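Help!! Second protein's tokens look totally different from the first
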Amino acid sequence: MALAAAAVAMTAGFAMPQRTAAAELDGRVIDVYAEISSSSTVGSDGRLWFDAQTSHAGIPSRPDPLNVPIRTGVERVAGLDLGTVIRVTGQVMVTDPGERAALVMFGTEVEIVAPAQGVFAVAAQVREDFVERAVRLPEPGAGLLPGLAVGDTRAVTQELDDAMLASGLSHLTAVSGANCAIVVGAVFWLVALCGGGRTLRVVIALTALAAFVVLVTPEPSVIRAAVMAAIAMLTVLCGRPSAGVGVLCLAVAGILIADPWLSATPGFALSAAATAALIVVAPPLARGLARWMPHPLALAIAIPLSAQLVCGPIIALFSEQQSIVAIVANMIADPAAPIATVIGLLACLAAPIPPLADLLAACAWLPAAWISTTATVSAGLPGAQVAVIPGIAAALLVAVLSASIGVVLSVDGIAARRGVRGISVVVLVVAGALVGARMLLTGPLVGTTVPEAWAIAACDVGQGDALVVRSEQQVALIDTGMETEPLSTCLSALGINRVDLLVLTHFDADHVGAAASVVGRVGTVLHGPVGSPEDTRLLGELEAGGAVLIDASTGMHGTLGEASWKVLWPRKDSAAFQAGNDASVVLEFDGGDVPRSLFLGDLSATPQRMLRDQLRGSYAVVKVAHHGSADQDTGLYDLLRPAAAIFSAGVDNDYGHPRAETLALLEAAGAVALRTDQQGRILIGMDAGELVLWTERAAEPAPAGEPDDSGEPDESGGPIEPPDDPGGVEDPR
């Protein structure tokens, strides 16, 4: 261990001069020459993201030698395969010291300097041929099949990706260590079936493993599994099979010596932990479960259960959701994964014979469809996920629950002690009671947790917008946030099954990321300017689900129940603001027990100043622009004079929203600050001409030495005096 630690320190030390030089480029627009070192995935921003190793970086046309890993996002172009040398122009940002990539680059221009050569070029062509063949198959399953077989996740939709995550099946979305084991085992068995000796079996299995790693690209989990499989094969070749824990530790130590930054990669940590769980935890769990069921069934349950118990605390460090249905979903879906992988790889190898390749791809589609359907159905079950605040506390809580489950189900070692078992039973009973109460409050009893007389709701969807306006049981949803689960939870709590008017202010992921979850339940879509093919695809899905699409522009108006709405921005066919934040749809609502309210999207100060001419009178409620960023127009809020200002932001978000100066600006305008990051879901209604407020949580107290003079009511709700003239104003048009 001392030698391994010293070697890791030396590797990190040798890399520091180059990483320090890279840090000096922070915030600059530069040219980078690099070789792509990973597969590419489509990010939430629509860019194609991949890892690369730089050779030169610096001012455009004169970059200096620099050798560091970099995470790069560019517009989608063909040919960005593993081993391709590229030149990218764009802005770079330095990362935290513990991150594997020294820089993150937002590319504006990309040029292929040298395409992939040799085996990398062959692997890229094989992948492309298989992906093209797979996506011609029907859904569900077509988009998932390339990920199961060759690690290409570009065809996986955001909706399916969310479902895989919610159901605990995300490890199947792309190639992982399990696939390496499947390939090695299948080749080893096939050679043995043909009469090959031990040496021949090991050599061919190692060769197949190397080819497989090149085909699927060397991701962290694949590297770990490949190294471990190679060591295991060598021990077989030497006639001295080693214990699994020893092989795993040797593999992990060797990988971390070669690349210490993998230690901070969640995928690598989860991969190693899951493997350790299968070696250490699964056997005693299987023996314990065998008390109540046949041993083969007990083993089948113990494998996904052990991995979930060990990986749960790690996931809780960075994830806001914990899957409750993961164990059952894995039991149902996991048997199909080896079939899809092996047949999918055979389809790749059969590419020179198209009819055979098509037949094999169709055969691999069936298990892929089974996995996809399992994910979708299990993710849609009530209480499939539990929201947690990621961090050490959440990890410790999940670890206690995981340990308790393990103790109760096992029969060996410490689990045999009566006191330990009794404590574990108590922990699980308490946890079960709390989960049951939550399911009741978000299911049959959901109506008891929400007051009836609300007209405006701000959903707590993290760093994003999702606001609801209701009048006479008709509902408008303004943006959807990024994640499906928080939006679905909020709409369920509010008793909303159908959206009459969906407003997509603009197409940033934090405003439209969860829009797919309401497809088929929307009457009309009012949207901002379209800026990319992804935007068009999303609108196409909504239209196919029965929605009527309207391209919003200034002057449009309509009704929602007894309330009226009016579009104040953007201007039609504006050359200055074509798409994005500054072309956000700005809506005004008024009448029918809906307080006069204004929703500003993500406008910056410049369009805010131009918007002033569209406004008449003050507003009772204002959704502050861009989550409360610092880029605000003071004159606009002086003109609006809102009684309540809604800030839709995520807890401890990286942007510092809402900014202190913006909070002070709204306070100076006379508004009460309502923050989803502190108060959760926020509801506003009208009672005898006064605003009435309900919040899911109490607001955080003001810092010591600063008076809390916000006038904000507690959780039970209370009145807020509206501004002068909160009523409707005749449309000057």
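Here's the second one for comparison:
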Amino acid sequence: MRVLIVGAFGTVTSAIIRKFGKEGARIYALTGGKNSENRYKKVYEQYDFSYDNNCIKEVFESVNPDVTIFTGAFDSNFEWSSGYSEMVKFGAGLYNCLNAFSFLNHGRFIFLSSNEVNSFDESTYKEILHSQRPLESGAIRTYARVYKASALKNGEDICSNYRKTTGSDVIALRIEELSFETKKPEEAVDTCTRMCSELLRENSITKESEKYSPIYITDVVEALYKLVNKDLLKYGLYRIHSDSSITQNELAELINTSFDTQVTIKENISDISSNDDIHDMSEEIEVKIFKDAKSCAQQIIKNIKNNRSVFASGSTVTEKFSKRIAQYFKGMLVALIPFIENMVIFIPFFMINNRTTGSTYFARLDCYLIYVLIFAMVYGQQQALFSSILAVCGYFFRQMYSRTGFEIMLDYNTYVWIAQLVILGLSVGYLRDQLNSLKADKEDEVGYLDSRLKDIEDINIINAKLKDELETQVINQSDSLGKIFEITSTLDKDEPEEVFFHAAEVVSKLMDCKEVAIYNVSNRSFARLMAFTSHNAKKLGNSIEYTKYTEMYETLKRGDVYINRKLEKDYPLMAAAIMAEESISSIIMLWDISWEQMNLAQSNRLRVVSYMIQNAVLKANRYIEMIENERYVEGTKLLETQAFKALLDAFINARKRGLADCSIIKINPGTKDVKEASIDLQKNFRNSDYLGSLDDGYLYVLLANTNNADAGFVTGRIKDAGYSYEMIDGDVDGGAYGD
């Protein structure tokens, strides 16, 4: 399953990635930040493009996700204190991602919303839009909540309408009171964090509702995974909530007690109803809540106490407001610089003009015209007009040395000069502005095309990398079907006696598990150990009553893979059955896999591996039944020579490779022949032990899954029956039957 996570780095995003990664999904991330320096560790590929970028369509086509999760309410890319601009940015990004998703014609798009939608108040929102006065930090914090609530409400409506108009599988999931531990105050949205932060900053607690019903993040991601895997969903808007709750008075008292304070509790309860079309997720999907309200609150309070300085500062919003004010004055200063420069430069031109007015050689030189043209060429029309006004003022001031203002006003030459000055200045300024505008448009177009080309190059580089990795996986990786088939098919070349031992090695290699055991079912209740890869793998013993392991037995009987999620003692961590005619034939047990491997992906891999070795194991079982019923010397439990030699070779080789235990006893029949001795002694051996002859006049016994130290109970019976014996640790008649 391919999953595309749309969201910046954060606690919620990381939790989703961990869950889906554990279940074997291939995770891709769209971070929303161009050239982001942060990199996800467990993500297959990461795209650092803003959500409104034109290349998002190419990203979706490249990833081709089965599921897209837009983190929305929990995405830290958005600075809600910026107000309207962030609302526009949020809506544009969501709509762009939805459009890119719709071109795929498959998959599911999930938009994550939160109970913050309930704080949307239309009257407050209108007040914000029409407010022209600077906001205090407290007001900014309140208005930021309203901006975010409005954006989330619009996001839910966009998803709902998109589902209706396009027929796409678009789901909006509203998470009520999500709680988790974080060191970033801007990430947390739950009531407990808000009240604790308020206590630390303002030494007060405000109650905004009657109940506190948190749902912990691990429960949410578990439910989200079930939502992703649900085939058909009736509606487009769901809510997930906890059934466990405490009153906010109890929560406030818990906070007071934990922080060893006793502050008054203020009330600011708003009665805002939620969307009537929202449906409870638990109606269609089983939602399990493991952490109750009180334990959630205690865990969050403990986290805030450990990070008191971060949550107590409360300076984030104030700093952002101060930063905006500073940027405003900085922009104003930059805008005033040309005017200041104009007035400063005007002074020397005014002085030069006064000196040249009475000069014989420079009297006809118009210094003011030069001054206006310079600023028209450098700054354009606006500064040309301003410099013209200054020049006219300077001209009038100089003329009033010898004439009155009334005489200057009546002189038509004055107006001709002013017209000449303004027309030339504005004309040159206009041409300058037009040329700069054309140049800027060209640079913008070139910049846009360059950025598009760079984005496409980045996507193509990623695609080429993914293509090479996929080719390598298909050809070389041990979890590819081709590689699994290549390894398991070697079992078909084994002799029947060796299949179980080799099969244990194959499972160990393919499942990356050092402790594997294979039990062969001997009747309806018992199974006997056939092969193991470590001493710990045979901890259940050489023979087990497998039906007593009820949970495992019921799972295997249904044909499913058993996963020991509760870590039950004396149960393998994972097990699978090899079936024969709808009944269990053999059981594969895994004992040392990690917790991260106990997921759906590993379960499916074990299922595939067991299916692929099934034919070889069933063939070996049929052979064992055959030698038990058809290859014995008539009237005895003595195996024919060739059958016994093959069995002996298989066990000795398995013992050398650490896959099985066995002991070999050489018995001297004395005056009797081998057949008579076997009849006399057969009652002293188990059904899993083998008697045979090597045509040397001696009777041999192969004790399966028994080492020499544990063979004492058998050798004692042989001695009591009046036969001499010896344990074989070396060669048997020069053959390779020893250690």
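Reply: Different proteins will give different token patterns, so don't panic. Residues 501 and 726 are 27 Å apart (CA to CA).
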